[in-house]
């Protein structure tokens, strides 16, 4: 059984060793849950240990992501004694896996071209005609403010000349 958890993200969704956490991995499957939902009550040994709970339920830690998603656990350190953990049998987990119907680029989804930065043509014309940019940027010329002349060191002479 192969499903996409944080570790098994496809190459299309993984770029430069970074994971796109905005894409959903699991979906809520109400029909399967209503018919096959089981409950596990945590013990003192299970506190803050979703890996141990997963191992007790499924015999491995392979489905930790699924258990956390199903039980809406965002921080496994908040798991306490006598907490109810919902789960389904291992062979039903694939029915909760998100199908690749939504593989949209997040930037395309949330971007708005009308909000793009507008360029002031007068300012860009002024910048191209002059040797320096408008403050607070620095000059384009390579300028060395330290000069040695007549046995004296002068620092910052003529810095403010335009």
Q: What would you say about this model in short?
A:
By secondary structure, the protein is of the alpha+beta class. The chain is built from five helices and six strands, in the order ββαβααβααββ.
Describe this entry's structure for a reader.
This protein is an alpha+beta fold. It has 2 domains: 14-108, no CATH class; 112-155, no CATH class. Helix content is 23%, strand content 12%. It contains 5 helices and 6 strands; from the N terminus they run ββαβααβααββ. The protein has a two-stranded antiparallel sheet. The longest helix is centred in the middle third of the chain and has 9 residues, at 50-58. It is elongated, with a radius of gyration of 30 Å. Residues 7-12 have low confidence and may be disordered.
């Amino acid at each position: 059984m192969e499903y996409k958890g944080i570790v098994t993200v496809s190459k299309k969704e993984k770029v430069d060793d970074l994971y796109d956490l905005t894409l959903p991995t699991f979906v809520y499957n109400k029909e399967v849950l209503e018919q096959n939902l089981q409950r596990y009550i945590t013990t003192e040994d299970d506190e803050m240990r979703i890996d141990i709970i997963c191992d007790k339920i499924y015999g491995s830690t392979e489905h930790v992501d699924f258990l956390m998603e199903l039980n809406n656990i965002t921080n496994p350190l908040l798991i306490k004694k006598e907490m109810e953990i919902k789960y389904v049998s291992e062979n039903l987990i694939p029915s909760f896996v998100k199908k690749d119907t939504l593989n949209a680029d997040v930037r395309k989804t949330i971007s708005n071209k009308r909000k793009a930065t507008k360029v002031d043509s007068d300012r860009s014309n002024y910048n191209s005609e002059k040797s320096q940019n408008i403050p607070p940027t620095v000059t384009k010329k390579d300028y060395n403010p330290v000069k040695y002349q007549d046995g004296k060191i002068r620092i910052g002479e003529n810095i403010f000349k335009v």
